[in-house]
Amino acid sequence: MIPPSLLILLGVVGGYSAWASPVTQEVKASSTVKTSHSYSSFSYTQVTSTRYATALGAPLSFPTAFAPAFSQASTLLPSNVTYTTYALQSSLTADGQYGQSAYAALWANLSYTAAPPFTTTATASAVPSSELVYPPDLYNRVDNPELKLPADFIWGVAASAWQIEGGLQLEGRGPSVLDSIGAIQSNDNQSDANIADMSYFMYKEDIARLAAIGVPYLSFSISWPRIVPFGEAGSPINTLGLQHYDDVINACLEYGVTPIVTLNHVDMPASQISDMSTLPENFLYFAKQVMTRYADRVPYWVTFNEPNIGVDVTFPGWNSLTHILTAHAAVYHWYKDELHGTGQVTMKFANNLAVPLDPSNSSHVEAALRYQNFILGVMGNPLFLGEQYPADALDTPNLNLTALTEDQISNFHGTMDFWAFDPYVAQFASAAPEGISACAADQSNSLWPECVTTSMIQADGWLMGDMSNAYSSIAPQYVRQQLGYVWNTFRPSGILISEYGFNPFADSERTGDAQRQDLERTLYYQDFLQETLKAIHEDGVNVIGALAWSYLDNNEFGSYTNQYGMQSVNRTDGSLRRRYKRSLFDYVGFFHEHVGS
Q1: What's the number of CA atoms in the CB half-sphere (13 Å) around residue 356?
Q2: Is 187's pLDDT higher than 70?
């Protein structure tokens, strides 16, 4: 190494710009800085200020209804439907195919340790101003205040029926495919969904709290077995279920919150899974009952939540995807063509973007694209492109996925008014160790049928970002690629980020005040949204909305330790009292700054 003194000499002789080292340049630059120090008297400075959340304006009304009122739409319903109310009484004797004893028989193999602490709807109490004080500002926040979102940007929060409602066996609800989680027979009593957040009876409180802090959109799901307990077309309709969700929607409007309604968020009636070929008929029967009553007040509908990852987890076999596409299209066409609804209809997909572990390695690129074909292409191709299932899937031996007919593709194509998906994070992809072809030919391989290895660890050994308690991570560097892949591959009219969120590591083990100061969750949302702004303004992607998961700590399909909530729920004293976390304030603040007027 050449000594610095010699470099300085060479710089003088040979020209500074050509020879001076970076160290020499830094010394020369710093020598010109004049620093002045002085003493003065010390005094404390106020560094905090009290700022309160701004509530929504209420009530909310729409200039025109999104569909005919029920008094007109009711003529579209079958004339021979039985409307009734069920109560669970296990001692009843047989009284017909759909009688009270038949209803009790639905629950014969399910019971729960914990009982709901209350069984009547709670009135909403005013949120004290002391709960609406913003937390201290984040001084390390990097923002682009000049980048704006349109005034009609759909921003808010989300949750699902099974994960928050509780009261599984109350007011005529039938069993769902999820209800064995937390049942006594599963030996999983710590995750008893029979209580969850008790939102079935606390929904007014929940909606009032969202309105008080200024959240304008709420995405929630309707429990299909609460409306059709037996799950079958032609079976009785539960009037208490219909009344409940009618009141939920009215409560949203009363407080100024716009409802986004999902018809099925995983919790299908338990009887449905035994024969997925009946899904289109059964689902349409349920959807008609709901839409004729609520569609005049609901601008956005989601048919199914994340069915693209349900194969062999919830749904039996890959051809279940065809039945789901058929059911979705049937509801879409009925809503648009017969009900003459003017709202928008979509389906939500799951996707954690597959990124090649080494983009210069062709096998890694092939693996990433294959993964995306299996997770998004199987439904995105026919719905958005009017194309066949991806060849990657159809050519996989023993997958038992039947190619779509031209008539099916024509029926499915164009039945999505916008793209909706849940891009929590990205992941690195490479081919199965034995190669994709060898893996695809071996149905017993643990990586079959995708035959892709995924990881959160980069090729250089670093994690891609700050990890959560489960799979999510703070890795905003991949947000634009996630949005760009969908935008340029499937070319939708717009993209709704229908779920995204972060569950801090071991969050449930922290004190209540520590959980409330959920900085990591704030950083996740702030970083994700900053990159979304760049995708809109620099990449030309039409992102129409973003809905955070979730507005409450809930039952993450058997776990209360994976806390995605922007509010906590006190489960220790039986009150189930909600408490805002700082992430919800920061989330609302971001949109107040960036959504245009």
Answers
A1: 12
A2: no
CA angle 309, 312, 318 (to 5 degrees): 80
Sign of the dihedral through C-alpha 117, 121, 126, 127: positive
Task: Tell the residue number behind the tokens 């935008």, with chain if given.
Answer: 487
Residues 85, 240 contacting (CB under 8 angstroms): yes
Which tens digits make up the pLDDT trace of 326-356? 999 999 999 999 999 999 999 999 999 999 9
Give ∠ CA 348-349-353 in degrees, rounded to 5.
Answer: 145
324 vs 318: CA distance, rounded Å: 10
Closest CA to 260 of 288, 300, 290, 293: 300
CA-CA distance, 156 to 545, in Å (whole number)?
Answer: 8
Residue 14, burial from CB neighbour count under 10 angstroms (0-12, 13-18, 19+): exposed
Domains belonging to the chain, first-starting first, are 1-29 (no CATH), 85-594 (3.20.20.80)
By the 10 Å C-beta count (0-12 exposed, 13-18 middle, 19+ buried), 524 is classed as: buried
pLDDT at position 95 is: 80
Specify the DSSP class assigned to residue 375: I
Q: What is the mean pLDDT of the chain?
A: 92
Q: Mind listing the pLDDT tens digit for each residue in 392-425?
A: 999 999 999 999 999 999 999 999 999 999 999 9
Confidence (pLDDT) at 185: 66
Q: Give the whole-angstrom CA distance, residue 221 versus residue 266.
A: 10
Nearest to 237 by CA among 196, 287, 278: 287
What pLDDT does 90 receive?
79
Q: How far apart are CA 252 and CA 254, in angstroms?
A: 5
**Is the preceding omega at residue 397 within 30 degrees of 0, hence cis?**
no
User: What's the pLDDT at 188?
Assistant: 53
CA distance 532 to 591: 12
Q: Are the C-beta atoms of residues 518 and 581 closer than 8 Å to each other? A: yes
Q: Characterise 576 by phi-psi region: left (phi > 0), alpha (psi -120 to 50), beta (else).
A: left
DSSP codes joined into one string, 460-476: TS-BSSEE-SSS-EE-G
Q: Kindly report the pTM of this predicted structure.
A: 0.92
According to DSSP, residue 309 is labeled G
Cα–Cα distance between 87 and 500 in angstroms, integer? 37
